[in-house]
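Milestone M4 deliverable, item 7.
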Amino acid sequence: MKKLALILTVLGLVFAFAACNKFRTTEPASQQAAQGVSFTIAPGQTGGLKSTASTDCFLQTANYAKITIDSKHYVRAIFYVDGKPYTNTLQLGTGLHSLQEFTIWSDNQTPNDSTDDAMLSAVPHTGSAYSPYVSSPLDITFTVEAFKKTQLPVEAICYQPSNYTDFGFTFFQIEQVTVREQPFFGDLCIKSIAEYSITGSPYLAQSNGIQLDLPAIFKIEVYRNNVLKNTFNNEAWNGEGQPLKVLYADRQGVADNFEFKLYVKVRKGPGFDYVYFKSWTISDAQVIPQNSDGVCDFSIGYCNPNADYVLPPWINLPNTATYTITGAYGPGSLGGYVDASLTNVLSGYEIVNGTFASWCCDHQTTINVGTAYNMDVYSSLYPALLPAFGQTIPWDKINWLLNHLDWYPGYHWYDLQGAIWLFDNPAWDGVAHSSVPNLTAMMTQMHNDANAYGANYKVPTGGWAAVVFIPTGTPPNAPTPTIQTMFIKLDP
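Output delivered:
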């Protein structure tokens, strides 16, 4: 009985059955001529409780099910066919019925002694903590139809009440699910305390105040086989003091692929919003690669280099801007290939309306001087978010060049532009093109150094990063640009 008491405590279930309402092993005479109903048992749809090979309830043999329908209680033996559990048939009259309880039990190999029986799994009730982990929590209304055979699953979760019924000649599949758990914790590295101290900042409530290394406030979306199943966030405790425990259900005998999408609450324009940063994908019982502490920790920025996943810093950029090349085309007046006028940038972002030195990444594509282009704005620190052609540009090496121009005293604007064009695909042939002269020794040296030192370059705090402009509406899978891929440099 102590096993049952523990299980009931975990589930928070209350079974209050009066003595006259004991579970039946036979049906009333009025129902014995009715339609046959039985159950097969299958896993719930998402998960929540961590289990191991030694504690997984679905690795244990179930002997019987306790079922409550229309406030009447039944016990049905469980048998296995091809490794799947089924209940023996019970008889119900045609019409509407309500399944109110469904629990699965082991007799602990003492079939004549019920005192040591243990509940293995069950169906949760609507509104309970684990109801999101099955497709149909209790109570469930179903219809028994005369001479109609229907097979429907009852979804069961370890240490929880199983649910879901529909019948006639009905077989309920007992689907089995292992509810797994993955804790997450994160750091958010910021460069400006003032930007995160404004009214409305969710980080103001943290116990240590605003600091350059903040416990990240974030959410995790859990997808199973590309379907969103649940979302978890740590807002309730302001992201500090404990990890966020993410629960998900791994169905037994089914190939389940899970994706965990990370969104961190960061400064976005004049306020704060959740922004997507990274996804992890695993299958079935796999775990996300991490350190031995069992917590998947990440750092946005480089203030915690020991995190499992160190991601580039966040740059507070608008989604779109209007980009116009002004003045001469190669050179610009500000030391770049061209001068770019940015307009329609709202306040609160790290770029503003104004004119900036700008460069291009593809020499073979054109862009018109004086034409206002509506552009999507991207951070080169997260190239995976760019359209397909933008992901092939070696932004790490370009950012290395932007941060090491002091290596090249006396360089000209065209040396930097030519070195960038040498990364193009197909690469520039070194013949004078669009005001850029023939290949120079400085271009070659810049290009070779970037290849040698720039792979996987991490832009430091106070360094420069490229901010990329691509026409609004460009499909994510676009293989080639429609105009030159332009960028400016920004201190992130």
